[in-house]
Amino acid sequence: MIRVENLHRHFGGFHAVDGATLEIEKGSVTALVGPNGAGKTTLFNVIAGVLPPTSGKVFMEDEDITGLAPHVLFSKGLLRTFQVAHEFGSMTCRENLMMVPGGQSGETLWNTWFGRRRIAEEERALRALADQVLEFLTISHLADHPAGAISGGQKKLLELGRTMMVDARIVFLDEVGAGVNRTLLNTIADAILRLNKERGYTFCVIEHDMDFIARLCDPVIVMAEGKKLAQGTIDEIKADDQVIEAYLGTGLKNKETV
After folding, report:
1. For the purposes of burial, counting CB atoms within 10 Å of the CB of 195, is it exposed (0-12), middle (13-18) or buried (19 or more)?
2. How far apart are CA 165 and CA 217, in angstroms?
3. Taking 80 as the threshold, does the pLDDT of residue 118 lie above it?
4. Nearest CA among 26, 13, 74, 85 for reference residue 47
5. Is the Cβ–Cβ distance between 204 and 24 less than 8 Å?
6. Is the pLDDT of residue 122 over 90?
7. Which of 131, 136, 157, 181 is the most exposed place for a label (fewest CB within 10 A)?
8. How far is 112 from 96, CA to CA, in rounded Å?
9. Which residue has the higher pLDDT, 182 or 52?
10. pLDDT digit string (tens) for 127-174?
11. Is omega for the bond preceding 219 within 30 degrees of 0, making it cis?
12. Which residues cross the membrane (predicted)?
């Protein structure tokens, strides 16, 4: 679904992404792992249009999407979440979800004067969809809570819910488990798996929790120094000497040979 060819992103003399070439297969839950500074989030930002590449190409199902703006990619079904959730804190969880779809009738001044019935009908439909999403994510009880007052893990679920308010095709999740307790992390994992299997979502996940990755992801892509170092199943990655040296640590190898 996504193909990255010889992608570079430089910040002055620093090569955050340095010739990365990789593919994310349609229908997969792909993990992107590696040490801090490997270029994972920068790669996400370039694919998602947040940053322009210095050079190289990004394709989505053979369409060249290199350098397209985030809102254009959003309309094509490419979405991303962030390590720190970006919610409208004073709005309720339901209202946060209802804000997501673009092109709503209430966005134009003309319709606020002459299209009130259409606006009301759209809002009823969006409210019903938002409630379905909250139920799917098992956070219906938070529908009327201000989004700024819920926990970090619940905010991650709400971010995932935003992707369900539009026709998402591929979702990039940046450290979805960061700061999330184990119970909520399991809930997030369940939701990702259901979206993948029941709705055909493709996911690419940056994450450091190897248990979380082992449950969800195949394949696993390892980045180091701005490029792809290895790719395989979680067991293959854990047994790869280059990966152990660059990311997992020699302690893992010694432990597994005892």
Report:
1. buried
2. 24
3. no
4. 74
5. yes
6. no
7. 181
8. 20
9. 52
10. 999 999 999 999 999 999 999 999 988 998 999 998 899 888 999 999
11. yes
12. none
8-state DSSP, 101: S
Q: What is the mean pLDDT of the chain?
A: 89
Provide the sign of the torsion angle of the four alpha carbons 42, 49, 31, 61, taken in this order.
negative
Structure tokens given for 194: 């259901």
Report yes or no: 9 and 54 within 8 Å, Cβ to Cβ: yes
Rounded to the nearest 10 degrees, what angle do helices 152-163 and 182-199 cross at?
10
Query: Average pLDDT for residues 215-241, to the nearest whole number?
Result: 95
Instruction: State how far the Cα of 148 lies from the Cα of 167, in Å rounded to an integer.
Output: 26
Distances (CA, A) of 80 to 7, 113, 162: 19, 35, 10
| Tally: H helices and E strands in the chain | 11, 10
**Cβ pair 49, 72 in contact under 8 A:** yes
**Model confidence at 194: pLDDT above 50:** yes
DSSP tag of 58: E
**Strand partners for 2:** 24, 60
pLDDT the model gives residue 252 = 44
Distance between CA atoms of residues 207 and 104, nearest Å: 34
Contact criterion met (CB below 8 Å) for 192 and 137: no
Which of 232, 243, 175, 245 lies closest to 209 in space, CA to CA? Answer: 175
pLDDT, tens only, 236-256: 999 999 999 888 764 444 444
